[in-house]
Description:
- This protein has helices spanning 5-15, 63-79, 95-104, 118-123, 150-167, and strands at residues 52-58, 84-90, 110-113, 130-134, 140-145.
- By secondary structure, the protein is an alpha/beta fold.
- 37% of the residues lie in helices and 17% in strands.
- The N and C termini lie far apart (50 Å).
- The radius of gyration is 15 Å and the shape is globular.
- The chain has one domain (35-167): Glutaredoxin (3-Layer(aba) Sandwich).
- Strand 4 (130-134) and strand 5 (140-145) form a beta hairpin.
- A five-stranded mixed sheet has the order 3-2-1-4-5, with helices on one face.
- It has five helices and five strands, in the order H-E-H-E-H-E-H-E-E-H.
Amino acid sequence: MQPNKRTCLAALLIGLGLTLAASADIKVGEMFPDLAACKLEGKLPDMPTGGVVLVDFWASWCGPCAQSFPAMEELLKTYGSRGLVVIAVNVDEKKADMDNFLKEHRVTFSIMRDAKQKLVEKAGISAMPSSFLLDKNGRVMYAHSGFHGSETKKQYVHEIESLLNQDHK
Length: 169
């Protein structure tokens, strides 16, 4: 299915690190928006006490997003038993685009869809993928813009271990 001109323009602007509207841009140290209040499509996972949450924003047309999925799946398999939760928030306009992507990129972590772009707006997302690591209180401890293969994965490992070890002291 061909993306429309608006979608292509938005993809281009996001790729350049620009947004169509002013954004809130959540900063490290701030509380992440309440996921339940954003009326995302899908079921929010149970949040373990003392856990760490990786919230990742992605789109079906995003090449680096496809590369990040296996890394996030591996992180979940490694750290899920210690309290890591991965929530991937899709931003596609059409649910069918998301569904087609997921047929090729099967994962066990939670997939949500921000069809109305409420969470995207609150978080100030300007690149795909964008991700946030939250501590047990929902505070943003680390933020990532883009996915740069093994470099980003190493950063995730270091940050997740740091947060999980901190939470269990």
